[in-house]
Write a structure and sequence with these properties.
heterodimer, A: mainly alpha, MetI-like fold, 2 domains, 12 helices, B: alpha+beta, D-Maltodextrin-Binding Protein, domain 2, Dipeptide-binding Protein, domain 1, Dipeptide-binding Protein, domain 3, six-stranded mixed β-sheet, transmembrane (chain A), MetI-like_sf (chain A), transport (chain A)
């Protein structure tokens, strides 16, 4: 397992370099740069600005300088958020994005598993149809629509939660719920399918024959195996939750990283955009690695070497 | 089994830990006043920002020589308690208050002002607003650095510093006389400067290069060669007196020095922490009504009332939160649930509903301000080089249709470039007739005279706009109007902001959308854009008479005559129509009825130091400007001293 992790680390470094290189040249290929402003600047000022940000050098020279900075651990200053370094932006936003993401994931897992297991166990009943109908709707609806409905109901009608903002647990509930809901829907469908497969296996029949109670059969014997596909879905789910939080962050005014990720690219904030791209690469890479590890951990039949 | 239990145990633990991490140390007392400040600001360094969200924060943190009256926007004493103006309108002598203090308790001195204005104008600061300071004598030449130098000028040569020096420090200065400029090609120049009877040849180099390489023989490296700052009309008479000499009498100068880019910053703080380190809340020293309390990117900026501000007894808010929220619907949601007290703009669909409310809402009152939305015509291209075509395009435009169908807040159809409302100025309107049918008939005639009867043979034109839904629907409607009335074929084209801007600068367009918000309440902020070759004039149009009128207005000391000159210039502009005005902006603030001291005004600028909360109040200055005057807030208009 250690050998695998080391190999993964090597690949991650390579991936980071490739991602950095491609993003670097893509960013500079679009007309929007860090210097574009609301008004036309006099050519002298423009020249000085270009010099300040090293944009008067050749792209290759800029690339060499940037790469050097990043290798020495310096992500630089944000071009657009003048008062902050990229590291500070990440330091402020990452905990917020991570906690929102974790809560969304917790919602997704809890709601998804309950719905999936219930539908599998009560297959063909009204429960099954109802949950699966909800799940299909949940996958089909984009999360800003869900957010709009939730705000109408829980903010304006019931006044249970604040409309937007960040600072207390009440602020987290709605956004995490809206962010997690589409994933809950997917998880419920995956867990239903795998649960149905497992429930028809021989060892479940054996367990039943031995007189194990129905709850114990489902919650212990069957669930353990049925969880494996859900765990492997967690990798893409975490990726989606982390990168897909933009809309939810905007609607609920949450100071996480999702907005920076998109805004930095749109506004031509070269340094911040590079920082975000690298951060997301590392995050996604390590999430996938964690999922693989836990997969091996949960299912001893799978060797970490394969 | 124990494995899966362990796995889910770990998962739960990770969740709890990350929640704890997010909420640690996050207990803040509620603010007295909370408002939505739209986008995240670029920074709080007065010299380096522009844009109205930045303005709201910087104005609260820093105070210039004058302030603006919250309703009339007339200049009122700020850190300068009084001033004298010479008879020719060129020399301003400002007397600073004895009690104008920095937030660290030290005095704000004339030296601080000189330092700050030099920094604002200095080319290495890269202040986008520096051009506003160019009305000061020689300031333009100072800002433009070596490109403005001539042989014989008195210059200052700034020496290089070590690479790791604090980035706001200046290198040692050598003052001398420029005796020769050698063109080295490739934009490089060498400067020979005579100092103490000795001539030295200077070459500009980055600090890093200056250390790495030896300079060529007989030469020395320097950071830059500038016009000697002592030639610029800014001087410290004594620690409380500042004298500013202008290029030409600038009627709005007192107003200008109250604009936030002209605010002082503290040299000690800036040079100790460097930029942007000095703007961190633990480092920043400011001199305004508020200090910087807390800042979280894309969340909020908390402002705390300053206990060193000279007028602190009249500042009635103790804690103000400015939220950075870009989604306008979210802002409305927060306003409706009483989480915020002021929002700057309301999305059009909500606005339409709210303006129809019966009885009318007591917290919404759109009002015109100095902003104009217009189309530029590329007068270097056929057939737009023909005045008759440009006039036909303007006449065929049904501006009423645009404002009534597409815009919700009562935007005003624009027939001039300068919006109404500037005291003493009568905006000059372009040609229109009393009915739209007559306009169209005249437009068709003009087009026929230009050689395109019923639009025949008229080349296809495109309308360029920066990608945005509102601009798109306006462009589409105008396309329909022109096609319908003139029989010409039009298409629309959108580009992202930067691409759109560079297309305009390089004149790769036929018709392009633009807008301008006045920097100060004077026709000059609109009209000086269209002088021949002006930075914002991307129409290819130029008229020596127009240039002369703008120049004469700049030199005119009689305010009446000055306005007449501007009127004449605008009349010329509206006859020749290198631009077609479309509509004037209106402000779209929503302000709770208990917020007092908040006025609609011409620049949609609302100083926080004048606002207070009165929970009993059912009506306020915002919707009912006539209600009682605010208690003594030192708002008396400045009395000119003899």
């Amino acid at each position: 397992m250690i050998a695998m992790s080391l190999r993964r680390l090597g690949w991650m470094v390579l991936t980071l370099w490739v991602v950095f290189t491609i993003s670097f040249f893509l960013m500079r290929a679009v007309p929007n740069g860090p210097l574009s402003s609301e008004r036309n600047l006099s050519p002298e000022i423009e020249r000085l600005m270009a010099k300040r940000f090293n944009l008067d050098k050749t792209p290759f020279e800029q690339y060499r300088m940037e790469l050097g900075n990043i290798l020495s651990g310096d992500l630089g200053h944000s071009f657009r958020l003048n008062d902050f370094t990229v590291a500070e932006v990440i330091e402020q936003g990452l905990p917020i994005s991570l906690s929102l993401g974790s809560l969304a994931l917790a919602f997704a897992l809890t709601l998804g598993l309950i719905a999936g297991v219930t539908s599998a166990v009560f297959r063909g009943t009204r429960w099954d149809t109802g949950f699966m109908l909800l799940a299909t709707t949940g996958i089909a609806l984009p999360n800003f629509v869900i957010a709009g409905i939730c705000i109408l109901v829980f903010v304006f009608f019931f006044s249970w939660f604040p409309a937007a903002g960040w600072g207390s647990w009440q602020h987290m509930v709605l956004p995490a719920f809206c962010l997690g809901l589409p994933y809950a829907a997917s998880i419920s469908r995956i867990s239903r399918t795998s649960m149905l497969d497992v429930l028809s296996e021989d060892y479940i029949r054996t367990a039943r024959a031995k007189g194990v109670g129905p709850t114990r059969v489902v919650m212990v014997h069957a669930l353990r195996s049925a969880l494996l596909p859900v765990v492997s879905y967690l990798g893409p789910a975490v990726a989606g939750i982390l990168t897909g939080s933009l809309v939810i962050e905007r609607v609920f005014a949450i100071p996480g990283l999702g907005t920076h990720f998109v805004e930095a690219a749109i506004q031509g904030d070269y340094t911040l955009a590079m920082g975000m791209v690298l951060l997301y690469t590392v995050l996604l890479y390590s999430m996938n690695w964690l999922v693989d590890l836990s997969y091996a951990f949960l299912n001893p039949r799978i060797s970490a070497h394969s | 089994m124990s494995r899966s239990r362990l796995f889910f145990g770990l998962l739960a633990l990770a969740l709890i830990l990350s929640l704890g991490w997010a909420f640690s140390g996050n207990q803040m007392p509620p603010a007295d006043f909370t408002f939505v400040n739209n986008s995240e600001i670029k920074g709080v360094d007065p010299a380096k920002v522009n844009g109205s969200p930045e303005g709201n924060i910087v104005r609260a943190l820093f105070e210039g020589l004058t302030r603006w009256h919250p309703e009339t926007l007339e200049p009122i004493p700020g850190i300068a308690e009084r001033w004298e103006i010479s008879d020719d309108g060129l020399v301003y002598t400002f007397h600073l208050r004895e009690d104008a203090k920095w937030s660290d308790g030290s005095l704000v001195t004339a030296g601080d002002m000189v330092y700050s204005l030099r920094r604002f104008l200095g080319p290495r600061t890269i202040a986008e607003y520096a051009y506003l300071g160019w009305c000061i004598k020689n300031a333009r030449r100072y800002s433009l650095a070596s490109s403005s130098l001539k042989v014989g000028d008195l210059v200052e040569v700034e020496a290089n510093l070590p690479v790791d020096a604090i980035n706001t420090l200046r290198g040692e200065l050598v003052h001398g006389k420029l005796v020769e400029i050698e063109e080295l090609g490739n934009d490089e120049k060498a400067f020979v400067v005579e100092h103490d009877g000795k001539q030295t040849r200077y070459l500009a180099a980055d600090d890093a290069d200056a250390i790495k390489q030896e300079p060529p023989a007989d030469s020395r490296w320097c950071r830059q060669v500038l016009l000697d700052f002592r030639e610029v009309g800014i001087e410290e008479i004594d620690s409380r007196t500042l004298r500013i000499t202008l290029e030409s009498p600038t009627a709005y100068f007192l107003k200008l020095v109250g604009y936030y880019p002209f605010a002082p910053v503290q040299q000690r703080c800036v040079e100790k922490y460097g930029s942007p380190g000095w703007t961190k809340q633990e480092n920043i020293v400011s001199n305004g009504a508020f200090t910087l309390g807390f800042r979280r990117i894309r969340d909020r900026i908390r402002l705390i009332k300053s206990d060193t501000y000279w007028n602190r007894e009249n500042v009635r808010l103790n804690i103000v939160d400015a939220l950075a929220i870009e989604a306008r619907t979210t802002a409305v949601n927060l306003y409706m649930t009483d989480e915020v007290d002021w929002i700057i703009s309301v999305p059009t669909p909500s606005l339409k509903v709210m303006l129809k409310a019966d009885p009318p809402r007591n917290d919404l009152k759109p009002a015109p301000f100095l902003g104009v939305y217009y189309y530029m015509l590329n007068t270097t291209r056929k057939p737009l080089d023909d005045l008759r075509v440009r006039r036909a395009l303007s006449l065929a435009l049904d501006r009423e249709e645009i404002t009534s169908i597409l815009l919700a807040a009562g935007e005003v159809p624009a027939l001039s470039l300068v919006p109404p409302g500037i005291t003493g100025y009568q905006a000059q309107e372009t040609e229109v007739h009393d009915t739209q049918a007559k306009n169209v008939a005249r437009a068709q005639e003009l087009l026929a005279e230009a050689g395109f009867p019923k639009g025949q043979g008229f080349p296809r034109l495109d309308i360029l706009y920066n990608t945005d839904e509102a601009h798109q629907s306006i462009a589409e409607l105008i396309r329909k109007q022109w096609q319908r009335e003139l029989g010409i074929s039009i298409k629309t084209r959108s580009e992202e902001w930067a691409a759109c801007q560079s297309s305009q600068q390089q004149m790769r367009y036929n018709v392009a959308r633009r807008a301008w918000i006045g920097d100060y309440t004077d026709p000059n902020t609109f009209l000086d854009m269209f002088v021949t070759g002006g930075d914002q004039n991307n129409t290819g149009w130029g008229n020596p008479d127009y240039d002369r009128l703008i120049r004469e207005a700049a030199l005119e000391t009689d305010p009446q005559k000055r306005m007449r000159l501007f009127e004449e210039a605008e009349r010329l502009l509206m006859e020749e129509l290198p631009i077609v005005p479309i509509y004037f902006y209106v402000s779209k603030n929503m302000v709770k009825p208990y917020v007092r001291g908040f006025y609609n005004n011409l620049q949609d600028v609302h100083p926080l130091s004048n606002i207070w909360i009165d929970r009993e109040s059912k009506s306020n200055e915002f919707t009912n400007p006539g209600i009682g005057k605010p208690a003594n807030n030192k708002l008396e208009l400045a009395k000119e001293q003899p």
